[in-house]
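Consider the record:
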Amino acid sequence: MALYLRLPATAGFNIDNELIIINAFNANEPAQSLHGKDVNIIASGPSIQQLPLAELLDTPAIFVNGSISLVGQHQFTDIAGYVISDARFINHQPEILQQYYTGQPLYATLAVFEAMATTHPDIMRTYHHAMRVLYPVDRPWGVKSNKLSFNKLIFKKKLLNKKMPLSYFINNPNFIIDSNHKAADIGVSLNITHGFVEAGTVAYVAAQLAFSRQAASIHLYGIDLLNSKQPRFYENKNNSAPSMLSKVMNERIVPSFNLLGRIYQSHGVPVINHSPISKSLFDTF
């Protein structure tokens, strides 16, 4: 029988000799429940520019990476979350957080928070109560920055930085793992209190968060995939960050979303992809 790593319930960060504590996500925390509401996950694909956003403003919304910049032009009345899973976003677009993050519920990996402790220490100090740690199940430390070295986290990183194959979790009731996928194992979490499964896009993390928080249905916007070489809606050709979506689209992203759609539908939670660009790629929704 596999022994599964117990994920830390809190993470402490040393910011200018002040200990900042951030709690890990826990689906049993009453404030985390979405109470059976529909949820929109708003990603950063160019198709966002064609959305009738006025029709979406009153539905709970989860933003990812730079899509939070939409709050600067639109009055979203129920911001249910903001998800960042890759510390490289913090380094490439530091001004996004500085301009648009004002204490919305923020869900991120240890690597992201450690990057923020260096690049945005004031934000960490001011809003850490609104932040929650999310752990990738197969490598709890998360995607580290490839630019800077950070040493703000208090507890030891060695155990959390050990990568495990997804097949290790195949009998864990909190995950559905497909080990028959030809390219590599794929999976989905049923409760990200115990970790999330990666698929090459932060929107996949956000979808697992929405399910874990008892969403009634999950609506995906701006997950365009096929035009991933174009700048994101908040970028231009001069400041666009590299995108890895085209490399992993067919091997990981599409099969993973198809698995997620099937599993969540079987639990009574439909997942709908509204992107006119990528909708045809998905066979379940």
Residues 33-163+196-281 form one domain. The longest helix spans residues 245-266. Helices lie at 87-92, 94-100, 110-119, 121-127, 202-212, 245-266.
